[in-house]
Amino acid sequence: MIMRAPPYVARTNRRRLSEQPPLHQTKEKTKKMLPNVVHQLEFNLNDLKFGGDSSDYHVLEESTEHIKDLPGMTCEIGLREGAGTKAILDGLLKRNKRKPHIVIDRYGHLEYQYLQHDLVAYDYSNQMRDRTLLNLFAFTYQMELNVIFFCMDDEEFFKRFADGVPIYDQKKKRIETQYCLVHLDGPHWEELIRAEIEWFNDRMMNGGVIVVDDVNLKDYNKVHDRLIELNFCEIISSPKKKAYQKQ
Ligand SMILES: C[S@@+](CC[C@H](N)C(=O)[O-])C[C@H]1O[C@@H](n2cnc3c(N)ncnc32)[C@H](O)[C@@H]1O
């Protein structure tokens, strides 16, 4: 039996499609309507700024080689000014892979649980968030990437998206449940990093990679040991970051 959409739906769709101008005309029209700053983002990628507060970003770029043929999303906890996420996106683009990339950061100028007894006030403000997102989304717009930003802390994300993230792309909706590459660069207290590892391990197939930042900090060995227990193997090592692949 052939199912037909109700007449009003068919009419609405027909009208919408016929009214839509081609994409290049839409962009031209938008250009006329928006302030200059938005236009400029379209053109000069070199003007975009992605600050970093760490080093060894090559570990992220190189990690994309290990997961390039795996399904699933890439993810960063702790965006700050974007250098980590940019390194992941550059790695994917270099390998011609366009995977959805999830970014989780709460900003809000909150105190930061750097280590167990080290609660510090950093400049992770909503102003920083907005500046970073302007640059990031100018980049993703130009490169036609699918980056999805969640303005919340890791705990909140884990509660709300335990059963996957809805992805809307290529005229389709799907619920993605798997992560293939994760950069853990939010909280640095080892207990909180270990909680993140447990969560992602349940959502990662063999071959998936977890990169941890600031591996020189106190008690990092507990994070390392847990990854080894979970059958991850260290594949890239540098003074600041290490990458582990699930076996
Ligand atoms: C060290 S910076 C991230 C640096 C960034 N990845 C880079 O490569 O330059 C830490 C970031 O994590 C965020 N953050 C701290 N605790 C968090 C949490 N529990 N959940 C999500 N984000 C958190 C902060 O707002 C801050 O932007």
- Major sheet: size, sense and barrel closure? 7 strands, mixed
Radius of gyration, in Å, reads 20 Å
Residue stretches low in confidence (pLDDT < 50, at least 5 long) are 1-15
H-E order: HHHHEHEEEHEHEEEHEHEE
Relative strand content? 15-25%
Question: Whole-Å distance between the termini?
Answer: 48 Å
Structural class of the secondary structure composition?
Answer: alpha/beta
| Mean pLDDT reading | 87
Strand order of the largest sheet: 5-2-1-8-9-11-10
**CATH domain class:** Alpha Beta
Overall spatial form? globular
Number of domains: 1
Specify the helix fraction band: 40-55%
Strands, count: 11
CATH topology: Rossmann fold
Number of helices: 9
Which CATH architecture is right? 3-Layer(aba) Sandwich
The CATH homologous superfamily is termed Vaccinia Virus protein VP39
Which hetero ligands occur in this complex?
S-adenosylmethionine
Keywords:
247 residues; alpha/beta; Rossmann fold; 11 strands; binds S-adenosylmethionine
